[in-house]
């Protein structure tokens, strides 16, 4: 077993729906503590990269889509307004996660 790198807990993980599932799925009562911790760390590292990775890229993409909607000549139509609300919600969630990274 290779040595573990230092583990860094991210507060933003607590706000994500899948976090508890990763804890439960990574833990086995049949294994020793060291093995459980190593498995947990590997799973969380992969999960973190897939869920929270590329935050700046996601934020830039959301902002561009919002700007496109707001500049559209068809903007007042309800489907664009619903899409704008959905994108705003995604952006707010992303910004909250980004803010929690500093704690």
Automatic annotation (TrEMBL):
Full protein name: Uncharacterized protein
């Amino acid at each position: 077993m290779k040595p573990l790198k230092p583990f860094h807990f991210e507060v933003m993980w607590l706000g994500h729906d899948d976090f508890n599932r990763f804890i439960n799925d990574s833990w086995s009562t049949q294994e020793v503590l060291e093995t459980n911790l190593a498995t947990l760390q590997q799973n969380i590292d992969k999960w973190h990269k897939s869920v929270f990775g590329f935050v700046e890229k996601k934020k830039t993409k959301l902002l561009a889509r919002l700007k496109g909607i707001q500049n559209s000549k068809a903007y007042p139509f309800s489907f664009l307004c619903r899409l704008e609300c959905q994108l705003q919600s995604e952006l707010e969630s992303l910004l909250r996660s980004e803010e929690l990274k500093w704690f």
